[in-house]
Hints:
Layout: E1 3-7, H1 32-35, H2 38-43, H3 45-61, H4 66-77, E2 81-85, H5 91-95, E3 100-102, E4 105-112, E5 118-120, E6 140-144, H6 153-165, E7 168-172, H7 184-190, E8 194-198, E9 211-213, H8 217-232
Parallel strand pairs: 1-2, 1-7, 2-3, 7-8, 8-9
Antiparallel strand pairs: 4-5, 4-6
Helix pairs in contact: 4-8, 6-7
The structure holds nicotinamide-adenine-dinucleotide (NAD) and zinc ion (ZN).
Amino acid sequence: MKIIAFTGAGISAESGIPTFRGKDGLWKKFRAEELATPEAFFRDPKLVWEWYDWRRQLIAKAEPNEGHKILAKMEEEFPDFYVITQNVDGLHQRAGSKKVIELHGNIWKVRCVECGHETYDYRAPLPEIPPKCEKCGGLLRPGVVWFGESLPLDALEEAFRLSREADVFVVIGTSGVVYPAAQLPYEAKEHGAEVIEVNPDETPISRIADKIYREKASTGLKKVYQYIKERYGSKG
Length: 236
Ligand code: NAD
Ligand code: ZN
């Protein structure tokens, strides 16, 4: 039995990392188009890097929460279990998840806009803003997917394939409005998966959900875990 956990910013909210569109969402204070687009970056790399450096510091101080931990435990228990995430914070991996597909990149990755050299840099704050490439001295950009950019093809293809094969598809903490990622629950549903939503608020995905937990990721996922064990047996 294949189980997919599809996560968004909401799963990291209890770790103190602001979501984008929730009540305390980042877009309330900043304008996305000023910060998370290639145009913004090339207009003012320093401003965009300052924002990312601030977010990197926030994430460095944060710890994975109970929600991340339950998903890591489920991966140990069920042989065919995957996390597909829109998050860039790496908290799933820090909680112990190994089979994680990152659709929108990773905030610790940096990539040279001149020579394409890509590496991880975990320093927060960065010593120099904007940071420069160690190979060619070119400008580095964050290794995340911005508005208007396409998603990494291998990750996207794998995510679609896994979603079609899923028996249970759990959607946690995503507003379901950022495409193509938001397509995945529909893809899973169409191919026969039971869709479960964990989110304190209603989303477009609520309409196709077979089961809904209107609560935070930590408490909601505890119940999802119980439910899957009871319904499908502990080995899935
Ligand atoms: P979003 O901000 O659009 O939506 C967050 C969702 O989480 C909302 O539906 C909200 O109701 C729900 N939520 C809030 N608190 C919750 C909790 N405690 N438990 C469960 N759900 C909760 O986020 P999105 O759908 O992931 O899409 C936005 C984009 O933002 C993604 O592309 C992602 O890359 C990026 N992002 C990532 C991070 C991160 O890595 N932590 C943070 C902010 C934004
Ligand atoms: Zn370079």
